[in-house]
Specification:
Elements lengths: L1 E11 L3 E4 H5 L6 H8 L3 E4 L6 H16 L6 E7 L10 H9 L7 E4 L5 H15 L7 E8 L19 E11 L4 E9 L2 E2 L7 E2 L1 H23 L8 E4 L4 H11 L6 E2 L2 H4 L6 H11 L8 E8 L1 E15 L1
Parallel strand pairs: 1-14, 4-5, 4-6, 11-12, 11-13
Antiparallel strand pairs: 1-7, 2-3, 6-7, 8-14, 9-10, 13-14
Helix pairs in contact: 3-4, 6-7
């Protein structure tokens, strides 16, 4: 079965650092309240001149450069986002223009909220497989968000959770006996974002959903790949809340050291959270060739998605 192998990563964070103490000056909250309930200590918001588009371009440019590939070798470009700068043109089209990607390849955005990067990878795999005879067997997949423009900064139940950022990955379509992907959704209004915002959320309902979806999706990709949790080097989950990940680690009886966390520094960046985490691991030298990684997303829709991939090359 042809699957995706990770070739390279990239990331971009905006310039405005916002701490929990900063938010306590705006709403009735505190660093202790936010940290103990979410694990989040700070996040980045876009400064003047920064947008979801500029972040996506920066992350994608870095991933492409690290891959060692020329733009004309990319066979498709997919961007997961719920906060694109424009309804049209898509963010992916703007990345295509800025990076000089070919004009005869499929380029599009997908919106699966916090599962957007996994959905994007699934779409990219299908597009590459559909054009299997094309020598361009590489996909550029991006997750980017500018959630700060969609938030009600007077709502302490949501404004403390989210941040902006972008991550990108270059994947290769190749024979891979360990690849697996699982996608799903159910219509549910536990997380809502009308056009233009603000983000609304039933926190308790989302927590109940997430602590079920995460282990269930992880089990699904392990079963599909014929692997076990012990075969994995990393599990990179959507970085929404440290308590969600801790709850699932305990439920799985897993080694917590395998479950990467960075929400303390970035907050919940929705579709960007998994690729930003992958890029951090790569930059820290913690991704090496042959490593197996499970990426698990869950979020608004409600949606969920899991993917088991192998690292090929240096990743950075």
């Amino acid at each position: 079965m042809k699957g995706l192998q990770l070739i390279a990563t990239g990331g971009a964070l905006p310039g405005r650092l916002v701490t929990n103490e900063d938010l306590s000056q705006l709403v009735d909250t505190s660093d202790e309240w936010i940290t103990t309930r979410t694990g989040i200590r700070q996040r980045h918001f876009c400064a003047e001149g920064e947008t979801a588009t500029t972040l996506a371009v920066a992350a994608a440019r870095q991933a492409l450069a690290r891959s060692g590939l020329a733009p004309e070798q990319i066979g498709c470009c997919v961007c997961g986002t719920l906060s694109a700068q424009y309804a049209t043109p898509s963010t992916a089209c703007l990345v295509q223009k800025e990076l000089g990607l070919p004009q005869d390849i499929p380029v599009l955005d997908v919106n699966a909220a916090c599962s957007g990067f996994i959905y994007g990878a699934g779409v990219a795999r299908g597009l590459l497989a559909m054009r299997e005879n094309d020598t361009r067997r590489y996909a550029l997949v991006i997750g980017c968000e500018q959630l700060s423009r969609l938030m009600d900064m007077t709502d302490r139940s949501t404004c403390v959770l989210f941040g902006d950022g972008a991550g990108a990955a270059v994947f290769e379509l190749a024979e891979d006996d360990g690849f697996a992907i699982d996608l799903g959704a159910r219509g549910d209004m536990a997380i809502t974002t009308p056009a233009g915002g603000p983000i609304g959320m039933d926190g308790r309902a989302v927590f109940r959903f997430a602590v079920d979806a995460l282990p269930r999706t992880l089990h699904a990709v392990l079963e599909a790949s014929g692997k076990t949790l012990e075969d994995l080097d990393w599990v990179v989950c959507h970085q929404a809340n440290s308590r969600i990940i801790d709850h699932c680690v305990k439920k799985l009886g897993a080694d917590p050291a395998k479950f990467y966390k960075n929400m303390d520094r970035h907050g919940n960046t929705s579709a960007a959270s998994i690729p930003v985490a992958l890029n951090e691991l790569a930059e820290q030298g913690r991704l090496t060739p042959g490593m197996r990684i499970a990426c698990i997303g869950f979020g608004g829709g409600l949606t969920w998605g899991g993917m088991l991939i192998t690292v090929k090359g240096r990743a950075v």
